[in-house]
Amino acid sequence: MTGGPPSDEGRAAAGGPPGGAGRAAPGGPLSDEGRAAAGAQADEAARVTPGPAVQVEGLSAGYGGEPVLRDVNFVLDAGRSLCVLGPNGGGKTTLFRALLGELATQAGQVHVDGRPAYVAQTDRTRLDFPVTALDVALMGTLAHGRWWLPARRADREAAHAALDHVGLGAQAATRFGELSGGQRQRALLARAIVQNARVLLLDEPLAGVDPASAERIASLFDELRGEGRALLVSTHDVESARRFDLVLCLNRRQVAVGPPADVLDTATLQTTYGSEMIVLGDEAGRAITVHHHEH
Amino acid sequence: MPSPLDLWDLPFMREALVELALLAVAGGVLGAWIVLRRLAFFSHAVGTATFPGLVTADATGISPTVAGLAVALAYAAGVGRAGRAGREPGEATALLLVAALAGGIVLASDVFESGGAVDRLLFGTLLGLESTDLLLSAAAAALAVVCTLLLGRAWTAVTFDPDGAPALGVPARRADLLLLALVAVAAVAAIPAVGALLVTAIYVLPAASALVIARTVPALIAWSLALAAGEGVVGLYLAYWLDLPPGPPIAVLGSAVYAAVALAAAARKPEAVRAGRPAAEAA
């Protein structure tokens, strides 16, 4: 599975070839109708809807010149999780931006079920910003339309419920900047829950989070999957990738995609990370460490 | 020491008072968004950028309001474009500030020989405020309030998390451009009273102090509004008493209030959250 674009295996593992992607169009990942429909169905988002939530076919994307990411092919069903693994500059964020529709695809097609929620790296958020955890969760209600009107009681209730869901009910009035790294991550997850997105994109959600919080966030991922949402999570941590249904390895192109047991072998990781990788362990590949330079 | 009641009893002072009250509303409300969106430098730059335009208008009889608005909006559009291209317009802004200031002075003294106008344009005046000045300030105040009521939630989400907010479906890009344009208009409105160099005295200092105090965005706006009004009125009185243009005393007062608030906050909370991010987050 190392080397060329393993689209066939990837699709088989991910549950069937993409078909009937009528809403997708090259160059415009999501049509306006697609977005409108997503908004109308937002309240039903949490229902388990079998079938593909994300379909990517022959995607090449970049910022004008040469594509910085090419030949990406995978299908992610609703209620499944996918870990995006790769070095810095490997194309993880580019893939997310293409899925968000912020980046025109240079080749191929992207289809996302509804408008995805995006949780950026929390170390880029401002800690002096005067918002509470509840305010952050409440931002998710903007996705329901009518963002020009004040929040309604139902909005506040939804935000409180989402904070309870992520275990931050007691911290609703705490300032975002005063939360711990893991709690901030969960507040942003609460925003995504309120947003009612069926597809969640999370950029390095476990970076700089202590092990207890990471465990808590990982079990939250399982709950969100159980609600029928599809999760795409980028990470540096090879070990944590084993908890996902699928792993997608990127290094400026798709190196491999498939279940962790198939993908997380030494050869694939070597292709993914190149010289950044140090292999400490045995043939079973249990102790593969990826060294990251400070940047 | 003159009676504070003169501020209301003398017609020209009353006009200045009304002008500053309107600017306090515009500055207090917009200032909150300026500090949240980190537009402090932009608001300073947009004021200075208008200076050569104002000198030219002053000397040639064009309406300074129109000239100022044209330059300021063009500048805002340029910054918006640069931001879209992902460029930080730092060096370009610094270059523009120096060029605008120097160019304006050269125009004023050598070309139009109107050196006396320079002080007035840079630091503001109590005398000679015109009804168009008051009208523009009233419009800026009204726009600031209306846009905050309609766009406040979207602006909060966009400024809090610029990467994540577009996925919420708010028109992040357009909301941001509108904010830039609004700040440009408001900066031009403030120039007659406080001067092109000191618009930040109204638009940044009160809100920066409020950001130290406030825990929510509505509280930030309320504090910013109260401080802008208080500093504006007291500064105006000081200007009248000490025979100064109003810009400098308002700016000095605003800086003093910020210093006091920041020191008080630092003393109360030595490990201030504002000081930085936990080391673990830097990974």
Mass-distribution shape of chain A:
globular
Number of separate helices of chain A: 10
Q: Average pLDDT across residues of chain B?
A: 86
Helix tally of chain B equals 13
As laid out across the biggest beta sheet of chain A, the strand order is 5-6-7-3-8-9
Tell me what you see in this structure.
The complex is a heterodimer of chains A (295) and B (283). Chain A has 295 residues and is of the alpha/beta class. Chain A has 10 helices and 11 strands. In chain A, strands 5-6-7-3-8-9 form a 6-stranded mixed β-sheet, sandwiched between helices. In chain A, helix 5 (153-165) crosses helix 6. The longest helix of chain A is centred in the last third of the chain and has 16 residues, at 211-226. With 283 residues, chain B is mostly helical. Chain B is 76% helix and 0% strand. Chain B contains 13 helices and no strands. Chain B has helices spanning 6-9, 11-36, 40-49, 51-60, 64-84, 90-111, 115-123, 131-160, 172-194, 200-203, 205-213, 217-242, 247-268. In chain B, helix 3 (40-49) crosses helix 9 (172-194) and helix 11 (205-213) crosses helix 12 (217-242). The longest helix of chain B is centred in the middle third of the chain and has 30 residues, at 131-160. Chain B starts with 5 loop residues before the first helix and ends in a 15-residue tail after the last helix. Mean pLDDT of chain B is 86; it is low at 272-283. The chains are: A alpha/beta (295), B mainly alpha (283). At the A-B interface, strand 5 and helix 6 of A face helix 8 and helix 12 of B.
